[in-house]
Amino acid sequence: MSFVSSIKSNPKLKKLVHWMLIPPGQSRPRLWVRLILNRFFHERGKGSVVRRNARMDLFPFNKFALGAKSIVEDFAVINNGVGDVFIGEGSGVGISTVIIGPVKIGNFSMTAQHVVISGLNHGYQDVSIPPRHQKVTTKQITIDDNVWIGANCVVTAGVTIGKHSVIGAGSVVTRDIPPYSVAVGNPAKVIKQYNFTTQTWEKA
């Protein structure tokens, strides 16, 4: 049995370790976790940049990787507390963007400002318990290479956005977007796709 498995299988030990990592009632790791512990668990590619005012709510029990020459801008929030977060090479996380795992972003993709990409949902089914205290569910979000997501978009849990697609500003993506597409609206719908035969973007 691994060290992590032994902790998870012992409720008292798990509670103690959780308290050591996370202040009660919060979703942000303790300062010593952010400054010391995470250095041994997460990957940062050469030339990658995390701006000073970005909030990196990262935990050692899930994975995080930031590819070479990628950038996380000021006031962005990245949280891997409920799922791994992977960001490829040459990608950009825009100002005030929020990413909650499980999320995988490919190479040379970018978000504009105030984008929310969340693989997390709170339960709400039991009306005797506030949603805040119900179990969470997660579904993997995958954003392929060369994707551009416009300002104020929301990408919901379980969605895949295909390669070289564009999501128009203010859109809410609730279903998969095929590669080489332009999608807009709430819920987002494909309005253009690239035709490799004619080498033009055509109305869908």
UniProtKB/TrEMBL annotation:
Gene3D superfamilies noted in UniProt: Hexapeptide repeat proteins
Listed transmembrane segments: none
Record-level Gene Ontology MF annotations: O-acyltransferase activity
InterPro entries tied to this protein: Hexapep (IPR001451), Hexapeptide_acetyltransf (IPR051159), Trimer_LpxA-like_sf (IPR011004)
A Gene Ontology term for the protein's cellular component: cytosol
Transmembrane helix among keywords: no
Record keywords: Acyltransferase, Transferase
UniProt KW Nucleotide-binding keyword: no
Origin superkingdom: Bacteria
Listed PANTHER family: ACETYLTRANSFERASE C18B11.09C-RELATED, SIALIC ACID SYNTHASE-RELATED
Protein family per UniProt: Belongs to the transferase hexapeptide repeat family.
Protein name, as recorded: Acyltransferase
Organism: Mucilaginibacter rubeus
